[in-house]
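Action item from last week, closing it out:
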Amino acid sequence: MSRAFVKEDDGGDGIEPLPDRPISPHPNFVTPEGLALIERQLAELQERHAAALKAEDRAVIATVARELRYWSARRASAQVVKAPAAPSEAAFGATVTIARDDGRKQTWRIVGEDEADPAHGTLSYVSPVARALIGKRVGDMVRAGNSDAEIVAIS
């Protein structure tokens, strides 16, 4: 048999390092709750990393190490922005309610990228809908998705 097609044992474990998660080019604005979320994520990952080291589980070590690099970078670049106390216009940290033409009302809080979860009422400040809302006031019309909507409340 030709040695050209036989993998030599190089002493490695066959686990390749995982590529880093991409970091957003936008400023890492976070709410105080968003900063707490990042810190909880880091603490949990540090515990998982220690457990993986103890168990000598190289696949988990590689996965968790990648996540630790991502969340450490996000923590280092986090810029806490507090919500305005009595906002007169939509801004980072504010909660905005819109009324659509079909009668539906939707409410979102404008937050940082890592804390955004539209299904749970939070939008990233760089999302198209949040960008359309920021700087607008109650009564203004905005483009939200495929239709127009009126801002009916800001808090």
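Closing note: The radius of gyration is 22 Å.
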